[in-house]
Amino acid sequence: MTKTCAELFQGMECTIIGNGDEEVAGLAFRSDCAGPHDMFFCIVGNVVDGHSFAQDAIDRGATVLVVERKVYLADATDVTEVVVADSRKAMAHVAANFYDHPSRDFSLVGITGTNGKTTTTYLVEHIANAAGKRCGVIGTVGNKIAGVLERSDHTTPESPDLQQLFARMRDAGCDVVAMEVSSHALDLVRTWGSTFAVTAFTNLTQDHLDYHHTFDDYFEAKALLFSRDYPARRVISIDGAWGRELWRRCSEAGDEVITTGFDTTAQIHPVDVTYEAARTIVDLEVRGRRITVTYPLVGRFNVENVMTAFGCALQLGLSAEAIADALATMEPVPGRLERVAAAVEAPISVYVDYAHTPDALTKAIASIKALNDQRTCVVFGCGGNRDATKRPIMGQAALAADYAVVTSDNPRREDPLAIIDDIVGGMDGADNFFVEPDRRRAIAAAIAWAEPGDAVLIAGKGHEDYQIVGTETLSFDDRKVAAEELERAFGLKEQD
Ligand SMILES: CC(=O)N[C@H]1[C@@H](OP(=O)(O)OP(=O)(O)OC[C@H]2O[C@@H](n3ccc(=O)[nH]c3=O)[C@H](O)[C@@H]2O)O[C@H](CO)[C@@H](O)[C@@H]1O[C@H](C)C(=O)N[C@@H](C)C(=O)N[C@H](CCC(=O)O)C(=O)O
Ligand SMILES: Nc1ncnc2c1ncn2[C@@H]1O[C@H](COP(=O)(O)OP(=O)(O)OP(=O)(O)O)[C@@H](O)[C@H]1O
Ligand SMILES: N[C@H](CCC[C@H](N)C(=O)O)C(=O)O
């Protein structure tokens, strides 16, 4: 499949210097991934200027460069240069053209918000599948086509990868695609040129201030998914002030909005909730009608996610009855309040959860406490090279548990002890915690602390089966490590 350079830029202002009829074989934004007859996008990044990799891309066979300023390469007279105002936007525009706008061929549901995106996409997938639709999923745990999960580096892929994924989903016959849309993706226009049927907002609480700097900027990045760039039907949780602001904007623009929330003015809200150990029963009011939903997920925050997914499915045209029926057979989401299964009957319960923000940690601890009336110990850390200002707030939040073990998450290129110091800075004066930088030992210590009936919550890494230390990615899965430590503590494994 090839298209000419001029075809790919149709609908976008640009200056083509060279051969507009040049056939383009593929799209690349990393020079080491460029191949023969590719178009290479020179992106001015936050770390380096992609224009400096133009020669490398040419050496690997690229024949078209997309640039924000002409590069004038020696010995490359047969190279075509396309000068644009914004290489990232050009890349997204070209990628959608290159793959023939695949998102127009299915109903794309885009979900944004600080927490709850993965869970909500899984809920939408399950409901759509139960209704006989074929649903693709794009997000943090990976990308799913026809039920097969593929790992990915990003929550929301860069535009050429995203459009290629859409094309594969279209070709696999997907009717619906449920996609997590990160604030980074919106700010870096990875989704530009995509056609959404529904866009949904879960919540906005602190995260990623290393990138967005202020809450206002973080919100405005999320709000782009509800702007004229992405016309769609909307689902908005109005439990928080940011959601209410988004609702105001969408209503003003004349969008078709379904509101959700514990707020009784929301179109979808709970009238009564029963939290049980392995399931939740919710009497929902859905646009003036009562319907009971029972589903095998736990925790108050999952009531919010269920309502958001319910709204998305209604916006896709499914009936409330079909949605309620589907929820009854929902399966657990990997690494989200997942109970650790060990090959030993343990008198304590251990859960793994992906809470890596202050709000998520607060809510995950509260959910475990609501499930278990004895003591709770939380094991957690914070990621390196990510928002450092959330660390002391997470430290403070962890004190809501009876006991906390502060450990390492993915330290990345930061000193693990310096990250822990930041966390402990928020735990001043408390004596119900201790520090163990080694995550396995921290998990073992929490299990040793627990008495029969107590619960241990291991937060922060959820489904991740690795730990990033420096530039190395080591094998580490909280669920496996916790199972091993339970087996060691309760008799099946020999002590080292
Ligand atoms: C903050 C962020 O998202 N940064 C992304 C951004 O980086 P950048 O603008 O700084 O780019 P850069 O590294 O300066 O490089 C500039 C250009 O030179 C190219 N280059 C660079 C080096 C090289 O050797 N060769 C080369 O060609 C790069 O491909 C790029 O096109 O553009 C790069 C590709 O163009 C992305 O790889 C990079 O993602 C980084 C790795 C990242 O970690 N992003 C995370 C934070 C992220 O996107 N997370 C969200 C989820 C967040 C959530 O939890 O909600 C996600 O959607 O995944
Ligand atoms: N609606 C919610 N409100 C607050 N916290 C939530 C909510 N849903 C889930 N959480 C918490 O956030 C964690 C991550 O959930 P989930 O993966 O669904 O969110 P996410 O938005 O996809 O996060 P990320 O993009 O960082 O992967 C969960 O493990 C849980 O602790
Ligand atoms: N997508 C999130 C995930 C964080 C998960 C946590 N385990 C960490 O590594 O900080 C991020 O990149 O900020």
Topology:
Blueprint: E1 3-4, H1 5-8, E2 15-17, E3 23-24, E4 26-28, E5 38-41, H2 54-59, E6 64-67, E7 80-83, H3 87-98, E8 107-112, H4 117-130, E9 135-138, E10 143-145, E11 148-150, H5 159-171, E12 176-180, H6 183-187, E13 198-201, H7 209-212, H8 215-223, E14 233-237, H9 241-252, E15 257-260, E16 268-275, E17 280-286, E18 289-295, H10 300-315, H11 320-327, E19 338-339, E20 349-353, H12 358-371, E21 376-380, H13 390-398, E22 403-406, H14 416-424, E23 433-435, H15 439-449, E24 455-459, E25 466-469, E26 472-475, H16 478-489
Parallel strand pairs: 4-5, 5-6, 6-7, 8-12, 8-13, 9-12, 13-14, 14-15, 20-24, 21-22, 21-24, 22-23
Antiparallel strand pairs: 1-3, 2-7, 9-10, 10-11, 16-17, 17-18, 19-20, 25-26
Residues 113, 115-119, 140, 155, 180, 202-203, 301, 304-305, 336, 353-355, 359-360, 363-364, 462 line the site of adenosine-5'-triphosphate.
Domain Mur ligase central: 111-313
InterPro entries: Mur-like_cat_sf (IPR036565), Mur_ligase_C (IPR004101), Mur_ligase_C_dom_sf (IPR036615), Mur_ligase_cen (IPR013221), Mur_ligase_N (IPR000713), MurE/MurF_N (IPR035911), UDP-N-AcMur-Glu-dNH2Pim_ligase (IPR005761)
Main location: cytoplasm
